[in-house]
Amino acid sequence: MMLTSSSLSRLSGIAHAFFTREGGVSEGVYASLNGGLGSGDERGRVLENRKRMAAALGVASESFATLFQVHSPDVMVIEKPWDEGVRPIADALVTRRPRLAIAVSSADCGPLLFADEEARVVGAAHAGWKGALTGVIEATIAAMEGEGAERRRIHAALGPMISRAAYEVGPEFKMRFLEANAENARFFTPSPQEGHAMFDLPAYIAARLEEAGIGSVDDLDRCTYGEEALFFSYRRMTHRGETDYGRHLSAIAIME
Predict the structure, then answer these.
(1) Residues 223 and 107 in one domain
(2) What is the pLDDT of residue 49?
């Protein structure tokens, strides 16, 4: 039902989970632990799935906060739960409130969880290529610092996301990254299709985290596209011509 990071698991009083697609009640393309309120799945099934995730994490279902994500670099600091029917628009959350789980959804993009054990501050970020390129990682770290964290103490974990082997991109995509920084060329390798390339999103995200100077970076190294039994994948859906896809949730909470 869920995967964990070895580095985050060593922290006292911090609960976290990268939930897989297993252990829920949804059916069809959403089978079975779909946490996406924005999907076409039956809302009642999604709410039951999220209730199960909250229970697995050890928090009340009403203390399980998510966002309306738009691939932005925007971060929100949360101090109390909100109505999930009117979720704020942003792509990362930071909190220091105990027993309030903050979560991001993904289905190929990179889910990132952060924690400063000493300051008791945690963060969660949705980092697809656009969010990573435009600064959601650095913005999350800065928001954590605003709540008392120190970056040298922050531990970050990269959850399941699409791997380089499955992520073919066009020339315009590659040029956007090269224009931002010529050194980004190292994250691209030639693809079988002329003029295209394979993009290493996990390595790009890890590099941004390391350049930010945080304490540690842990990559679970799991591919959402390739491991169909465990993960949803937006790209796999498009390749198959399916109408929709499920979303994973990745969550973290201060338990003390």
Answers:
(1) yes
(2) 98
